[in-house]
Structures are given as structure tokens and as C-alpha cells.
Amino acid sequence: AFNFCAGPATLPEAVLKQAQSEMLDWRGTGMSVMEMSHRSDEFVNIAETAEQDLRELAGISDDYAVLFMQGGASSQFATIPLNLLGDKTSADYVNTGIWSKKAIAEAKRYADVNVAASSEDTGFTTIPEQSVWNTRADAAYLHYTPNETIGGLEYDFIPDSGDVPLVADMSSTMLSRPVDVNKFGLIYAGAQKNIGPSGLVVVIIRKDLLGKARQQTPTMMNYQVIADNGSMYNTPATYSWYLAGLVFKWLKEQGGVQAMGEINARKARKLYDFIDGNDFYANPIDPRFRSWMNVPFTLADDALNSEFLKGADARGLLNLKGHRSVGGMRASIYNAMPEEGVDALIDYMAEFAKERG
Ligand code: PLP
């Protein structure tokens, strides 16, 4: 079966098999990783190796702290303003879809939010050129969503935020291609797409941005506290952290983000080319900003949706239903989706269109 779910998403089979083989007895310790003290030498080694592998994969220098936090990406929507506003009151946000909107709504509880640009008037089918953004030099930070998982809209550029720290929700694009981390003040990513199990959220923060949390910030949301304690101020999500480490090792074996980027570009191109070349299917996104990770598409007749999904399920092409807010279909093709999965989907789509189109 090929699982096209947007998240929790398919994980590399090799990773799941390794986890299975180590589940009851991790390397002769007689314990599952799940049962280990987070302060044991064994687990500290697992945790540090995972961080080191992530640093290598993403090219993260010592100027940045890497935090393994909990509460998913959504908890960061509040954690970011609580920590980064410092003595400022306002922050800039770019609105390109449902996840941007959620980040904006939560930030408004703490900050004077300036929506510097929005593509809502286009139905979130494009990204406004940076030349028309109304950003402010005195903003505490500039937040954007490089890949809108639901809309399937992805930036093909990194915004230039000048001296203002750039903050990115990379939940659904992290590790899918090379990115220059040095351009960012903070990157965060919910794990359940390209990293591992849900609940875990990885935060990469430039160290000079630590230590600015508002006084009333919950301790568990204070980046300085989490950094000072090696993400072990409390009991971390140990098993998720371990699984993320296995995914990072797998990624390194695949050739890292450079190789992933080439494969992902090829997978996405194939699928979009097929959709564009077939009258029965359509994708509404400005071709320049089509996501490599999440490919929404509609059928010529919505009345055929359930039949399409039933046929897909029968072939082991799972979870193609679009997000409830936009309808239609969505194929999420993260790092762990093999190219054969995309080929199998295209074959099925071609057959379905021929029979029912
Ligand atoms: N941001 C983006 C871009 C997402 O795709 C998601 C989840 O799918 C989230 C945030 C929320 O993540 P979580 O469910 O881990 O809070």
C-alpha cells in the first residue's frame, strides 16, 4: 500500500522495520527505548546522535540551538510570540493559507500582528511578490509558512527580512530539499510529515534569540529553559525522538537533502505534468508555487469523488481525500513516498479518467 496522508504520514519502511526489530530489546539492553530513563547513557546517546544527524543533514551551525519540544507545531503558534517579542509589541505575518491563518490568530492573542501580505483574495492560489509586502523594520520578527500543507502552495524563494528575524513554519517542507538555515532566526516543524511521529516538534533557533521570553511565559514554552536543559527540562517524547533519529539516519543513507530534493522535484513534476495533461483533473495553484509535498487536485465531476476514493483504496492508494476545508483530493508525497507510489497513483488516475471521463 502507498499512504498519501498529509500527516501523520508514511514513514520509510526501513525505519519501521528497524524500530520493530529493536522494539522489545534495544541493542541487548533488555529494554525498549520506550522504557529507558531519558537520563540514561543509552537514551542520551540516542538523543545526541539524532541532534547531530539533523545538524549535518540541514547544515545547522553552532550559532543555532536545536530543540525537541512537544505539543506539535500548533503549540509554537503561541510559543513564538511569547519568546520573540522581547520588548517589542508587534510582529509581521504573511497570510498564504489555512496554516498561516492559524498562526496569525494565535499570535494576535499576544502581539500586535501586521499582516504584511496576503493571497486570500486569490483563494490562496499564489504568493504575493515580496516587493509588495508591507513589512515593518521595527517588527519583532517576520513569520511565514513556506509550504501550505492544505492548499498545496509553496514558496520558491526565501523572503529577505533584513535585520528582522525570519521565522518559518516548515512542518511540511522540512528536509525535503536543501535550505540555507543561516537565513532564518527560527524554524519549526511538526514531526509527522518528514521527521517522525506526531506530537514532537523540532525547533531550530538562532542563539541570540534565546532569553527574551515574557515573564509570564509557561516554563515549558520558554526556549531558553528548553535549550539550557538539552530539551529535557521535563520528560521528553523519548520514543518519538528515537524514531526521528532513525529517520535522520535513513535520510543520510539516501544522500541527504540534496538527493531528496532531486527525487522530490521529479515526483512532483511527474504528477503535475500528468494533471495538466489530462482534462479530467485540475490543480488550481499558480504553477510557480506548486508544492512539492502536497498535491491537491479535483476531478471533472465532484459526484465521482467517492467512487475515485473507493477504487484507490482497493488498489492500496490510501488517504487521497482532500482536507475537509477544500474538498477534492490531495496526494501528499513526502520524502518517504517512493517514486513507485507516484507512478502507481498516476496509472490509477489515467485509468479512472479513461473509464469515467
Ligand atoms: N503547520 C503546518 C504547515 C502543518 O501542516 C501542520 C499540520 O499538519 C501544523 C502546522 C500543525 O501541526 P500539529 O498538528 O503538529 O500541531
UniProtKB/TrEMBL annotation:
Main location: cytoplasm
This protein's UniProt keywords: Amino-acid biosynthesis, Aminotransferase, Cytoplasm, Pyridoxal phosphate, Pyridoxine biosynthesis, Serine biosynthesis, Transferase
One Gene Ontology cellular component: cytoplasm
EC number of the protein: 2.6.1.52
Amino-acid biosynthesis among keywords: yes
Location in the cell: Cytoplasm
Name of this protein: Phosphoserine aminotransferase
A Pfam family: Aminotran_5
Binding site for pyridoxal 5'-phosphate: 73-74, 99, 149, 169, 192, 234-235
Pathway the protein contributes to: Cofactor biosynthesis; pyridoxine 5'-phosphate biosynthesis; pyridoxine 5'-phosphate from D-erythrose 4-phosphate: step 3/5; Amino-acid biosynthesis; L-serine biosynthesis; L-serine from 3-phospho-D-glycerate: step 2/3
Residue list for modification N6-(pyridoxal phosphate)lysine: 193
Cofactors named for this entry: pyridoxal 5'-phosphate
InterPro entries on file: Aminotrans_V_dom (IPR000192), Pser_aminoTfrase (IPR022278), PyrdxlP-dep_Trfase (IPR015424), PyrdxlP-dep_Trfase_major (IPR015421), PyrdxlP-dep_Trfase_small (IPR015422)
Lineage: Bacteria, Pseudomonadati, Pseudomonadota, Gammaproteobacteria, Pseudomonadales
Boundaries of every Aminotransferase class V domain copy: 2-345
Cofactor note: Binds 1 pyridoxal phosphate per subunit.
Classification via SUPFAM superfamilies: PLP-dependent transferases
Subunit structure: Homodimer.
